[in-house]
């Protein structure tokens, strides 16, 4: 397969993969044991934490390792609710990932008032609406940094400024932006990251929590990760994550230029083949690797299956809900009709994709579109 589904997950960098076996032997010991082998594992965890913290410009003890972003998002949302019982309103954007929407829905069943923020047709959250909806009862504001379906980037600095002025906590899911778009750490009290979106393995992630903010953990046990995430640390994958961040850090300009070049080539080529194709949020600031396209006439499921038959992997909606032919909640909140939203296909590029692969993609799209459009 030629893989253009990097917003769903990425392939592990080969140099990280090679080291995982060695690290599994070197750092097999429990980092909570006081013997030398245990302490070697502890050092590996703390060096990794230090590296990631310095990359983000935050204190080391504000980085909490978890198994994935879903765990991080649940820990933050449910942990805040327990920490501040006097506040019972939550403000969220309607374009959040399900790992944010569903824990918030869970809280709404337990009496919390959930208020959705307006977004415009390009998918940008309305700051005036945010300002109007904050009340003294607002527990936190949750706004995704880069949307996983459309790649649209929200202005964390401006949102953070409003939240700070109104004395409200600000949480952002930064899963799709981490390493690709700068995260203004000062502006955000909590943010979540997942390793498998940046070429680290699945099963490792972290969140950032500003130190002085109270958070009740989801898991109680041995008190690891500053008491916020009990359970023996996944030393090898923590090392794999920090090594992956190091590779991104050292190649960042090159990687980002490459992603932009691949996306630019794809958009230009696509418009030549199908002039009335629609690029979602074309005029908004978007991440360099995610493009959602609405094809004329042909529904997304048919297009994706036809591409799959030709050896090309892409998605519609979020990967987590792929296979469910219901329209994306993100596109509906941008104001798209259900029918149009069901024609949206997401192409997401990775740093290992090549220009030649984009040429093949465009050729296949031309063939498929030519063949299928006669039936509509
Ligand atoms: N948030 C966003 C924006 C995502 O794209 C995803 C994955 O699709 C997640 C959260 C969940 O990440 P994980 O698979 O690490 O739980």
UniProtKB/TrEMBL annotation:
<dbReference type="InterPro" id="IPR000192">
    <property type="entry name" value="Aminotrans_V_dom"/>
</dbReference>
<keyword id="KW-0479">Metal-binding</keyword>
<keyword id="KW-0408">Iron</keyword>
<dbReference type="GO" id="GO:0051536">
    <property type="term" value="F:iron-sulfur cluster binding"/>
</dbReference>
<keyword id="KW-0411">Iron-sulfur</keyword>
<dbReference type="InterPro" id="IPR015422">
    <property type="entry name" value="PyrdxlP-dep_Trfase_small"/>
</dbReference>
<dbReference type="Pfam" id="PF00266">
    <property type="entry name" value="Aminotran_5"/>
</dbReference>
<dbReference type="InterPro" id="IPR015424">
    <property type="entry name" value="PyrdxlP-dep_Trfase"/>
</dbReference>
<keyword id="KW-0808">Transferase</keyword>
<dbReference type="InterPro" id="IPR016454">
    <property type="entry name" value="Cysteine_dSase"/>
</dbReference>
<dbReference type="InterPro" id="IPR020578">
    <property type="entry name" value="Aminotrans_V_PyrdxlP_BS"/>
</dbReference>
<dbReference type="InterPro" id="IPR015421">
    <property type="entry name" value="PyrdxlP-dep_Trfase_major"/>
</dbReference>
<keyword id="KW-0663">Pyridoxal phosphate</keyword>
<feature type="domain" description="Aminotransferase class V">
    <location>
        <begin position="2"/>
        <end position="361"/>
    </location>
</feature>
<dbReference type="GO" id="GO:0046872">
    <property type="term" value="F:metal ion binding"/>
</dbReference>
<comment type="similarity">
    <text>Belongs to the class-V pyridoxal-phosphate-dependent aminotransferase family. NifS/IscS subfamily.</text>
</comment>
<protein>
    <recommendedName>
        <fullName>cysteine desulfurase</fullName>
        <ecNumber>2.8.1.7</ecNumber>
    </recommendedName>
</protein>
<dbReference type="GO" id="GO:0031071">
    <property type="term" value="F:cysteine desulfurase activity"/>
</dbReference>
């Amino acid at each position: 397969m030629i893989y253009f589904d990097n917003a769903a997950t990425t392939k592990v960098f080969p140099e990280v993969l090679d080291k995982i076996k060695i690290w599994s032997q070197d750092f097999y010991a429990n980092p909570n044991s006081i013997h030398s082998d245990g302490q070697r594992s502890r050092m590996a965890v703390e060096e990794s934490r230090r590296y990631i913290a310095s990359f983000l410009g935050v204190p080391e003890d504000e980085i909490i390792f978890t198994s994935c972003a879903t765990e991080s998002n649940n820990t933050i949302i449910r942990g805040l609710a327990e920490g501040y019982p006097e506040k019972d309103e939550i403000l969220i954007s309607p374009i959040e990932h399900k790992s944010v929407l569903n824990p918030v829905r869970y809280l709404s069943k337990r009496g919390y008032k959930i208020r959705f923020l307006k977004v415009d047709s390009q998918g940008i959250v309305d700051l005036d609406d945010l300002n109007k909806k904050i009340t003294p009862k607002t527990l936190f504001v949750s706004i995704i940094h880069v949307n996983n379906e459309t790649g649209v980037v929200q202005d964390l600095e401006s949102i953070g400024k409003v939240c700070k002025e109104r004395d409200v906590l600000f949480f952002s899911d930064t899963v799709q932006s981490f390493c690709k778009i700068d995260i203004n750490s000062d502006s955000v009290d909590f943010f979540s990251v997942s390793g498998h979106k940046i070429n680290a393995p699945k099963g490792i992630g972290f969140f950032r929590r500003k130190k002085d903010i109270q958070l009740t953990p989801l898991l109680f046990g041995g008190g690891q990760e500053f008491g916020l995430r009990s359970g023996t640390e996944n030393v090898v994958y923590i090392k794999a994550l920090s090594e992956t961040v190091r590779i991104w850090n050292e190649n960042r300009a090159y990687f980002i230029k490459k992603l932009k070049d691949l996306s630019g080539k794809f958009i230009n080529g696509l418009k030549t083949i199908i002039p009335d194709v629609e690029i979602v949020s074309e005029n908004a600031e978007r991440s360099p690797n995610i493009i959602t396209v609405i094809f004329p006439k042909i529904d997304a499921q048919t297009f994706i299956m036809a591409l799959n038959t030709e050896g090309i992997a892409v998605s519609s909606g979020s990967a987590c809900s792929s296979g469910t032919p219901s329209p994306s909640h993100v596109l509906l909140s941008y104001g798209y009709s259900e029918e149009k939203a069901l024609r949206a296909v997401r192409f997401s590029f990775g740093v290992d994709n090549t220009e030649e692969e984009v040429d093949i993609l465009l050729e296949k799209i031309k063939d498929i579109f030519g063949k299928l459009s006669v039936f509509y």
